Amino acid sequence: MPRRGSPRWLVAAPCLMLLAACGNPAGTPTEAKQNVKLVDSTPAAAGAIEQATWFMAKEPATLDTDNDAAGANTDLIMSNVCERLVQLQPDLTIKPGLAEKYEWAGPNTLVFTLRGGVTFHSGAALTADDVVWSLQRHAADGANESDEFAGVTSIAKTGDNQVTITLKAADAVFLQAMAGDAGVVLERKAVESQGKAYGTPSGTDACSGPFTLQSWKSGQEVVLSKFDKYWNASRTAKAGKVTFRWADDDALVNSLVTGAGDGAYLEDISSATRLATGGTTTVSQGRDTRVWSLMVTERGALSDVRLRKALSLALDRDGVARAALAGFGAPAKEPVGPGAWGYEADTFRAAYEKLDGAPASPSDQDIEAAKKLVAEVATKQPIIVASDTTPARNVIANALVDAAKKIGLEASIAQIPTQQYGDFYSSKEARQQADLYTDDYYISKNDPVGFYKNGASTSTVQWLLKDPQYDDLVGQARAALDDSQRAKLTVDLSNRWADAMPWIPVVQSPSTVVLGNKVTGVPASGCYRYYPWAADLGAKGA
Questions:
Q1: What's the predicted TM-score (pTM) here?
Q2: Residue 404: in which H helix or E strand, if any?
C-alpha cells in the first residue's frame, strides 16, 4: 500500500531550527554532510550486545499491521517480529523469505513454495493453512493492505507446503507487495485466541521472526526480546533485548547525544546536522522512496497544466533542501525516490536524468520559460497553498509563494491545523481549501510501478490525471513480468506523469539512521520498515 508520512514528527521544538543556540554546539550543515556516508548498511557488528534502546518519533497506534491505523511506527517495530513470504534486502532487492521459492506458473498464477522447519514463537509449525488465512486477512475489506489484493481472484492451499495465488491478470507489483505488510504470515490460532487484544498493549505477537514482543506499556515503551529458538540459526539476533521509546525531536536528539539512546531512524532528517558532528553519534543515509511533493487539488486555480509546469520551473528545490532538510535531502525531479529502483536501476537512472521541468535551482532561462507559460493562460486565479505551521511544510509553502511571485502569479498560504491535514487525501471538501498541499510520500515496494499506478483515473491520491491511455499503460506495466519490459513501460509512465504534473516534486528525503558509538550493523536504506534490522544491531569492533 502506498503511504504518506505522519505530520506529527514535524512539530519540532523552536530551538531545533537553531540547534547551537540551545546549548549544544552543532557543526555547520556542510561539515555535517561531509561526515555522512551513503550506504546500504552500516558496518557489520563485531559481537553481541545485552540490550539496546531505540528512539522513534511517536508511539505506534497499533502493532497489528492489518489495522488501518498502522503506519511507519508500527512497521519499525514489527519488521523485527513478523516475517514475510518475500524479504526486502538492505540493497532494496527482494529474495525468498518464508517462501523458499516463488514462481509464475502462468501469466496470472503465482505459486509460493514454503520453507520447511519454520516455527512460530508459540512453537507451532508454519503451515500452508496459516499462509492462506493470513493473506485472506490482509485482503479483507478495511484491512490496511486490502488494496494490494484488488486483482486477486483466489488464494488456495495447493500442497502441504504450497500456496497458489490466482489473479485477474499478471501483476508483477503483487509480488513486490509480498515483501511488504501484505506478505506477513501470522499464526492463525495465536491471533484468534487473543481476539480484540491482538495488536494492543494487552496482546502479544503471532509471528516467527528473530524477536518476540515482550511488552507494550502504553505511553512509555515497547520491548522486544531475542527469540532463542528462532528457526533460522544463521540470522539470530545479536541483541538480547531492544527497548523502543518515543520523543519529540529535541528530546530524541538529546537522548542520542547523551547516550540515553543507542539509535534511531530519523524522520526529521534536519536533526542530522547536530548528530553528525557532535562526536558521540554517527549518521548514515541510504536510498529510500520518500519524496516531498506539492499535491495539486481539483479546486481549480491550477487546472491548466501550463501553470503547474510554470511553478515547477520556478521552484527553488535546492533552497528547500537546505532550509527544510539541512542539506541532507536532494532536489527531486519525480515524486518517488531512487529507492524504488530495485531492478533495471541503470534504465531508471538514465530516464531520471533526462527529465526536465523540475530544476534544482531555476536559471534565468527557466524563469523566462515559466513566464511565457503563464502568459499563455488567459484566465488566472489567486493560488492558495496549504501548510500546517510545521517547519518543512512552511518552507515548501513559502518557496511556492516565492516561485509564483517571480513569474507573475498571486499566491498565499492557508494554515491548516495539523490534526486536519490528513483530510486532504480523503475529503473533497477539505481540498476546496487549497490548490496545493505538501506531504512526504513513500511506497512499500522497490518498483516505480508501485508509485506510478497512482496516476490511474481511479486513484484516490491524485485528482487531475484522467487519461485512458495512462490507465492502459498502468495495466501493461503491472502485467509485464519481464523486468526489462516493465522498466521501459514504467519510464513511459514517469514521462507521462511529468507531462501532466498532478503533483509537483520538490525534494527527496533519504533514509537516515543515527547510531551511538557502541553499536553498528543496521541497514541505512528504507528497507527497515519491512526488514528485521534489529537482528543486525550489535557491538562495534575495537
A1: 0.88
A2: helix 391-406
